[in-house]
Design goal:
The complex is a heterodimer of chains A (166) and B (260).
Chain A: H1 3-12, H2 25-28, E1 31-37, E2 40-45, H3 54-68, E3 73-77, H4 90-99, E4 101-102, H5 113-117, E5 136-140, E6 148-153, E7 159-163
Parallel strand pairs in A: 2-3, 4-7
Antiparallel strand pairs in A: 1-2, 5-6, 6-7
Chain B: H1 2-23, H2 32-60, H3 66-71, H4 102-123, H5 129-157, H6 161-174, H7 179-182, H8 186-193, H9 204-217, H10 240-254
Helix pairs in contact in B: 1-2, 1-8, 2-5, 4-5, 4-6, 4-9
The chains are: A alpha/beta (166), B mainly alpha (260).
Chain lengths: 166, 260
């Protein structure tokens, strides 16, 4: 890794997600790459959900952070391979839990549509991020944002968001 | 290029028109969780539409932008399925008015999501790499839309006598419009022969399996279909699309080139 690439990584290392400020873009797997193109440095980001309103903000934040650090780089949005919650770092998942959001399970391997809609043999439990109880129930498939579902803990009675596998 | 842009506009218009329709529930949902769910589904659909319009704009070049495609085309230039532009209630006559019916919303979202879950999966293999990338993202989203609408279909169909009757009525009203899925348009045929598009008739058996299993659980009866096949994807629309577009496009047309 040359000096300018390393400097860009260092500058962006702690840049937080605008919606969930306890995790960094790197933790979430949104920041994909910093590379040298023919005409300068390129920072590659990937969108989460197609309609995520935070994406514009994320791009602006990346540009501003690079400018503040005096690094000239282009920001490139890349769709493929599609972002997945499996790219989230273990550290990022732990930060989510501490923040009160249950982190995502791994996406089911090789799930196709017909299998996806069939009732799973065993429903995965989502532990409560507040008290750790496995005695929780889904109240709604969609929560405060498209990427989260709404759950309720039947032991501590607290509602909480679950970051859905994507 | 034309086979690609015509086909991409069909996919984009489907997503935008249903996204706009479902967004009518924002602030009016039957319960708070559903208000939020429908708004989130709309956000996904409008996001998918934006990715597709951006791709069309880059292929067309010149001064074409995603906003031009969404806000400055006329009714007959839209290529969405007629099913997706219908209001959230059954047919009315004369000057009759109706409030929005959640069963209609759910049945439509179910019938469309069941198709798109299969179509996006197949389009991951499109010869157009950009479309394949959009399909891979959209597939992850539509699976949640399908699960949401299927759960509610079962809950309403296998619910009270009132919810069952309204869901069956919505199904009877909307099901004939699904015939349009299987009637190939010239744009689809061109995209298929270019390797960009997918022949949806190859997905019909899987769609039937998803629909029949859900209807069975929901204790609903699959209607017999026949008769007129709508042609929204050829630009021949019902009277409802114009009103939807008027509301959606009026701000952009009143303030062209506005920035905020």
């Amino acid at each position: 890794m040359n000096a300018s690439v390393a400097a860009a990584w260092a500058a962006l290392e702690t840049l937080a997600d605008p919606e969930i400020p306890v995790v960094s873009l790197r933790d979430l797997g949104i920041l994909r790459d910093v590379r040298e193109a023919a005409d300068g440095l390129e920072v590659v980001i990937t969108p989460t959900y197609s309609g995520c309103p935070a994406m514009g903000q994320i791009e602006d934040d990346v540009r501003a952070t690079l400018a503040n650090a005096g690094i000239a780089a282009r920001v490139v949005t890349q769709l493929a391979p599609a972002w997945t919650t499996d790219w989230m770092t273990e550290e990022g998942k732990e930060k989510l839990r501490a923040y009160g959001i249950a982190p995502p399970h791994r996406t089911p391997a090789g799930s196709n549509v017909v299998r996806f809609i069939a009732k799973p043999a065993q429903v995965e439990t989502v532990p409560c991020p507040h008290c750790g109880s496995a005695h929780t129930v889904e109240s709604s498939h969609f929560g405060s944002t498209a990427c989260k579902a709404l759950y309720k803990c039947l032991d501590c009675q607290e509602p909480f968001d679950y970051f859905k596998p994507y | 290029m034309k086979p690609a842009t015509d086909y991409l506009l069909h996919l984009a218009d489907n997503a935008l028109v249903l996204g706009q329709r479902n967004a009518e529930w924002c602030g009016h949902g039957p319960i708070l969780e559903e208000d939020i769910a429908l708004s989130n589904v709309s956000l996904d659909l409008i996001g998918q539409a934006r990715l597709l319009y951006q791709l069309v704009a880059s292929l067309k070049g010149g001064n074409c932008t995603e906003d031009r495609l969404a806000y400055f085309r006329e009714t007959h230039e839209f290529r969405n399925y007629t099913l997706l532009e219908l209001p959230h209630h059954g047919p009315l006559s004369g000057y009759a008015q109706s409030s929005m019916d959640y069963a209609t919303t759910i049945v439509r979202n179910f019938l469309y999501s069941a198709l798109m879950a299969l179509l996006w999966e197949a389009l991951e293999k499109s010869a157009n790499a950009d479309l394949a990338a959009i399909a891979a993202k959209s597939l992850k989203e539509v699976r949640y839309h399908l699960r949401h609408s299927r759960d509610w279909l079962v809950r309403l169909g296998d619910g009270t006598a009132e919810s069952h009757a309204r869901t069956q009525a919505a199904l009877d009203h909307l099901f004939p419009y699904t015939q349009e899925f299987w009637a190939q348009s010239p744009a689809e045929a061109a995209a298929i022969s270019a390797g960009i598009g997918v022949d949806v008739t190859t997905l019909k058996a899987d769609w039937n399996a998803i629909v029949d299993a859900a209807l069975g659980e929901a204790t609903l009866v699959r209607p017999e279909v026949g008769g007129y096949v709508t042609e929204g994807k050829k630009g021949i629309h019902s009277e409802h699309l114009g009103f939807l577009l008027a509301e959606m496009q009026s701000l952009a047309r009143a303030h062209p080139n506005a920035q905020w």
